[in-house]
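Protocol step 4 of 6: record predicted structures for both targets in the notebook before any analysis. Target 1:
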Amino acid sequence: DAGFEPAVLPWLSHALLETWKRRRGRILTFSGYAEAGGLRGAIVHKATAIYQQFNEQEQHIARNVFMRLTKLGEGTQDSRRRAPLDEIIPPDPNSDPMLLSVLQMLAKARLIVVSDDGMHAAHEAIVRDWTLLRSWVEENRDGLRIHRVLADDAANWVHLGHDRGALYRGVKLGQALEWAEQHPQDLNTIERSFLETARDVVEQEHKAQEEAQRRQLETAQKLAESERQRAEEQEAVAVQQQHTAERMRRSAQRLAVLFGVAGILAIVALIAFYFAGQNRELADQKQRTTRARELSAIAQRLIPDYPQRSLLLAVEAYNTLLEDDPRVPEVEEALRLSLAGAGGRSLPFESSLTSIENPITAVAISSDEKWLVAGAENGEVYLWDRTNLELPPIVLSHDYEAKVLDVVIGPESSWMYTSIEGNAVYQWDLYNLEFPPLPLLSSNENEYQLSLAVNDKWLIGGGENGNLSVWIL
């Protein structure tokens, strides 16, 4: 039972004393040892006795310490866990004298072992045989799993220099906060700071998002008002032109009466009504656009509180426009946001890149998402560093001006391959972009009209004639 466990001698002495009390004459028997509870019984008895000496607050501290020193089994028995000292002892030990007092008593009673690299239970019997600890663990096993993951993630956050990217968000943050609200005394300083920082960051992000939506809404409302005024002005012009056309028609009638030229009346009337109709259609289009923008602005305001009604208004705004009407970005954006607010799925874009004058004919992204690349009609290749999209792209050129047909980036983002018109494939060193590209074998046939594919061993080119070319990298 003792094995090579540290600090086990007092427990062995106690177990032998209890066995001596149950001896047969002068002989110690195994049955007497078993009746005394053995080494494990001595340890469990001592743990219960020490725990019962604590007051209510001290008992809660001891309970938290032993549960932190328990490793939950995954299909196996629970076992001891070595916990880092900073997980149990705060940075300023004097800030919690009661905790230090409890730890000192547990260490003095040989129930825990404290060293420079951590703390653990003195014997597996404490974790596996102490009925009181077993009941605590079984009653809170799911919560303990949440707490254990929280403790590890909080320690990792400190290790990463309080990186915001290591903080919880979404469902994981909600679960951790719910558990922490029910077990506030079980949190240490690091875990509490981790959750409070995560909650504050999420609130800041929500406020920033709400402020951005508010500014978008104000802009949309101002634009809608401007379009409404413009439509009214256009309608007034159309009415005035219609009146002018009517006067021209009456003048033509008088001319026809005076001069007997009936054809003049028909020609002038047709011209006048044509322009009047054109202006009326333009005014109607402006009215539809204004109405659609107004409905879109209202739909965006209703997203937080009435998502279903918001979606209906956004659809109505979209349907207000006719098929031949110009696109209205505000209407499409309102429909996308309303769809997301009502439980639908939208795909937001991350950023807009620098506009390229030449038509883009091929695009790709590296597997580590560092490089964005686009090939152009004139043979130029543009590289963006995704970690800083505000910088202008790196511009690369082939030996001659020809349309880029396809572009791919190798798995480790060290090589890029392009195919261009003229039956050529080029290899680029992404770590040495100042060097010219290396031309690979080309063909007299137009083999590379379709696409390229690459992995860490092969580069494959496929053409319209059905042939494949393979390069060993």
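Target 2:
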Amino acid sequence: MKNWMNGWNALLSAAAIAVGVAVFPSSPARADEASVPAAAPAQAAERWAKLPEAEKARIRANYAKWKALPEGERQEVRERYRKFRSLPPERRAAIRERYKKFRALPPEQQQRIRERFQQFRKLSPEDRQKRIERWKKRRQDVSAKRQERRQERRQERRQQRQEQRQERRLERLERRRNR
């Protein structure tokens, strides 16, 4: 997972250098597949000139990482990027949101998640499928339990409202008698 993310950042920076555009995670560009308008080089040079030196250094470092990746890994990153771009916008937004949440986790927790993911990837397809099925079942069970608890709380509230109504009726009756 970490290699893939390094590859991803490197791909973005490689694209930025190749096209001369500063690429930010929210708007990745693809130099190897992009159709660049005639005015793009001038605009790109302008954008590049406006970038802070720290950002330029980060892009250059990521570009160097990209170039250092074996072609097979670069191809894998490109393919994953193509798949990502082919997803509906809502799905891509959901993935980005999950990634932001992941990045907000403490580094130790991120590492545990990466390690578990690597373990999952090493499983045979059959074992992976079994794990997925168990996970789905567990999710359904948790969801069913939540639904059950919600129902119980609703029922309790209904009961409380009925009791309160009954108490108010009795109080009104008592007031009428006392008149």
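Step 5 preliminary note on target 2. The chain has two domains: 2-132, 133-179. Residues 18-36 have pLDDT under 50 and may be disordered.
Proceed to step 6 after PI sign-off.
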